[in-house]
Automatic annotation (TrEMBL), chains A, B:
It is found in: Cytoplasm. It is an enzyme of class 2 (transferase). Belongs to the PlsX family. NCBIfam families: plsX (TIGR00182). One of its GO terms (biological process) is fatty acid biosynthetic process. It catalyses: a fatty acyl-[ACP] + phosphate = an acyl phosphate + holo-[ACP]. This is Phosphate acyltransferase. Homodimer. Probably interacts with PlsY. It comes from Lujinxingia vulgaris.
């Protein structure tokens, strides 16, 4: 392995080059492109972790700034079909494990992976400590909505947890609300993000016992601008800036949003081929359809932050293309520059003193 | 109250006339229309339960067959904003309670309500017994998919529970699978319906402990054609004929499907007004859009069966229009004719002997 040279001013992003359905090609391509970027790329280095030969071959074909990219060899990869826990224990030399170890050792400031999400969450939570005062990390997903928010005019709502864990206790749901708030403040520059609790009713006394108790905790917490409970149909409308839920429900919710988008665009595609009139209609409508597509297009932002750890971790959908991985790299850089783990620790600290 | 006359051959549907956002107008209109119908309406009587003056006034304006409609006065109604349990205990004279009592007394064969869903579920489960061998009733919702199934070529999948309760134990999830199967066999005439378990992974060992155990029970049950676990994005594709999940998750899932539809069509409507080219495009595309709309249109079928009780109960979305209530009436008649509670008891009996 080549010695990794770091300067104090620069940022280094460790990237699991082998993770994802189109790895290493799209991952390496996204890194190559980012290495050439003036603004965002300035002072940013990338540490590609994976099969050295495969990465070298992929880079060879691409324009890139070789001074900004270093390769770190990791001989194996955890495949999508594998059971995360078993695979992680069997292969300490897997790219995701090695990438985590590099971040843990201070060789990089953040981790980006489009690999097996369960394995990435598990590897990250094992390598990096939880922010003090937090019971549980949460995977947050942004989803596009018709409403824009904050100074950055983000057309996104944040939903967490979407699968870092399954169930959540009331105080953990409160922690998700505090982390989500901090994230929306920093990333969307939304000063008073509206936090909502996902339930089966707007009524505060309805829902599971955990949800009923979490409603109480969220509503009386001064650091949280609590909107109240929302129901499933209010998610796509984007009424709330931050939606809090347990991981099992969040996983189902975010995947349904994704699935509806796919099913609708499959139908639109088949309509395109079916009739000349429909084809013309689709062309005339393209601007309008673009608006609908924005509502449901997951490639447009591409990275889900794993919040609550002492390091910045961004996971991409395994099916991510180059654009999605590129957006995830940008998000990782932004979160490192904003010192997100510190900001979240501060938000939780406010939590403890006021809670 | 007028004496209710019943013949052995006829079917009587008790309808909560006061339930729903547009009650009693749309409910009475749907019943009036159904009373005139030749085929389906033959031998079918309706018992409208609610404010007698309001119902009489509404009927007065409408063509209807007065021999097929009887009114039963119930002076109060449970409003949408009320807490179900409290309201039910306070008002035994509410339309939903009276409608349940009439079914329980054998004056009607089925209940249809577009009122407060929580109150309707609670009133029904208090009045009607559970089918023997069943731990819990389940509210089933059909949702449209691109795939058709069964002899009836239903473009619908069934998902249950969507909110009769919150959590579910493994054997209750198995019960949902057996009931859903029986329903798909009878209503969609789908001989071997594919039953799937909603989880956060296709992997049988993933998910909550309840889901992991339910996977085992469903997979080894001979009366169930088990497809395995599915994830949220597979719901809109309609891969499974019956999707099994706990009520809290099901409620969120079905409302997201509904919400995405609304958000997308709001955007299409605004596109229509925004540009002439878009308006022309929408016109040319109308057939194609219709296809997309079918994917997400909840008015098209309008009734959710509450399964596992000894009586036929169909709940409508409170926002239902006349068409949706009319479809729910048709569904109630169909389920009474098919003796659905008996069929479900038989399916569960198979369950006990083989499980």
């Amino acid at each position: 392995m080549a010695r990794i040279v770091r300067s104090r001013e620069s940022i280094t992003i460790a990237v699991d080059a082998m993770g994802g359905d189109h790895a290493p090609a799209v991952v390496v391509a996204a890194v190559a492109e980012a290495s050439l970027r003036g603004g965002v790329g300035q002072g940013v280095n990338f540490l590609l972790v994976g099969d050295e030969i495969a990465m070298t071959e992929a880079l060879f074909e691409l324009d890139h700034n070789s001074e900004r990219i270093q390769l770190f060899h990791a001989p194996t990869v955890i495949g999508m079909g594998e059971r995360a826990q078993v695979a992680l224990e069997a292969r300490a030399d897997a790219s995701i494990v090695q990438a985590c170890a590099l971040v843990q050792a201070g060789e990089a400031d953040a981790l980006v992976s489009a690999g097996h999400p369960g394995a990435a969450v598990l590897a990250a939570t094992r390598h990096f400590g939880l922010v003090p005062g937090l019971g549980r990390a949460a995977l947050a997903s942004v989803y596009p909505t018709p409403r824009v928010r904050g100074e950055a005019e983000d057309p996104f709502s944040l939903i967490l947890d979407v699968g870092a864990s399954l169930r959540a206790k009331p105080d953990e749901l409160l922690g998700f609300g505090l982390m989500g708030s901090a994230y929306a403040r920093i990333v969307s520059r939304n000063e008073r993000p509206r936090v909502a609790l996902l339930s089966n009713s707007r009524e505060s006394t309805m829902g599971t016992p955990e949800v009923v108790r979490a409603h109480e905790l969220l509503s009386r917490h001064e650091a949280i601008n609590f909107y109240g409970n929302i129901e499933g149909h209010e998610i796509p409308r984007g009424l709330a800036d931050v939606v809090v839920c347990e991981g099992f429900v969040g996983d189902v919710a975010i995947k349904i949003l994704e699935g509806v988008s796919e099913a609708a665009f499959d139908l639109a595609r088949s309509a395109y081929h079916e009739r000349v009139a429909w084809r013309m209609g689709l062309k005339l409508l393209s601007g309008g359809l673009q608006k609908i597509k924005q509502l449901t297009d997951f490639e447009a932002y591409g990275g889900a932050p794993l919040l609550g750890l002492e390091k910045v971790v961004i996971l991409c959908h395994p099916r991510s293309g180059r654009r999605a991985v590129g957006n995830a790299l940008r998000l990782a850089i932004k979160n490192v520059r904003a010192e997100l783990p510190v900001a979240i620790a501060e938000a939780l600290d406010t939590g403890t003193s006021q809670g």
